[in-house]
Amino acid sequence: MKFKHFLVMASVPATLFSCVSPKKLKEAEARYTQLNGAYMELQGKQRECEGNLKDATDEIGRKKSEIDALNKQMELLKDNNNAALNQLRDLSVISNSQAESIKKSLENIGAKDAYIKDLQSEMSRKDSLNMVLVMNLKGAVGDLNDQDINIKVDKGVVFIDISDKLLFKSGSYDLTDRANEVLGKVSKVLLNQPNIEFMVEGHTDNVAFKGNKILVDNWDLSVKRATSVVRVLQNKYGIPPARMAAAGRGEYLPVTSNDTPEGKAANRRTRIVILPQLDQFFKLLEPQQ
User: Fold this and answer.
1) Whole-angstrom Cα distance, residue 247 to residue 34?
2) Confidence band (pLDDT; 50, 70, 90) for 16?
3) 211: which residues sit within 8 A by CB, 6+ positions away?
4) Contacts of 223 by beta carbon, 8 Å cutoff, 6+ apart
5) More exposed terminus of the chain, fewer Cβ within 10 Å: N or C?
């Protein structure tokens, strides 16, 4: 009886295993591989977003440290001036005009102190807006390959680099069908930020362009590509032209070496540069009333 019981138990896994056909097993394995790949891709995007957020946080921390140091210097100057003014008044050795001059100096220090506080507030606001903009852009174009589109913040400016293979055919400035998909997603985010101005830059590699009746060289090609993008953003997606500028950089501002095919591909790009709101900072430089 024990031997028969053992034979029955041993046959159960074999019977269960035989119930799963090789075809279904392969389908399950393929599905697992697909899901695992998607999971790894999402992990990579999450790490990139976390890295961008950390860079922005570090930059804000450095600016705050600089402002704190300036505040300490201002406080020290105010204390020294107050002490000197009190001593001079006690000794009755200064004239009314000298006392008024010192008073104006103290008022100027107060104005500069207010300027620093306003500057700190504007910097924090701008950094926050830039981070929101980057996250929105990444969310809008999250289904695109990172090698074809890259979004970053450098010194308070947002850069969107789009590979030319997504936008144009080789040697052409006519936009492809895929370009409309990419620019449509980017335009939705830009339309939601009506105060943002930006520049569209065309870039090429260093391979000489064979000129034709319209284009002379890479510089001409880069300019025409930039204006093609600007016209689509205006005419098809309704972005006001006053918010945009078009520029051609040709081969003269590469992001990497042109010594390899990969490097050339990286340099052939269209860049959208989100310009900082300088008018807010210029306003702070106006004389205080």
Assistant:
1) 42
2) very low
3) 217, 220
4) 202, 246, 247, 248
5) C
